[in-house]
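Appendix B, Record 12. Input sequence as logged:
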Amino acid sequence: MAKLNTAFANEIEDLESLITATEEHQEILPTCIPHRQALVEQLGKIREGKALRDSLTASRQKATQDLQALLSEGRQRARRLRGAIQADLGLKTEQLVQFGIAPQHKRRRTKTPLKAPGRRSGASLFDLTMS
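Logged structural output:
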């Protein structure tokens, strides 16, 4: 963003130096006086536009902060409403899905994996494959 500001400052500086140079040499450039005056007016409009843009940038940032605060408050109110809905309907009813709430279900018991069969005494796996 600093690059844009530098470019803008360079543009303004260029216009100002052109205006100054034509003022210093207006005797030898009499036909340029209306063009210089138009440029002076345009430079004033440019400065007003820059001031407006800066003001709007600040306003936009403030509006963004206000919107974020409103959204945060909305999330809190939605959380409270969903809590009240759960209190009224219960935690397990499937109607909760309509309100964006996942109903609670019983947890499934995980089966314990089967134990590997123990080795037979005296016989190894190697012995069984060789026979």
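The first helix runs from residue 2 to 24.
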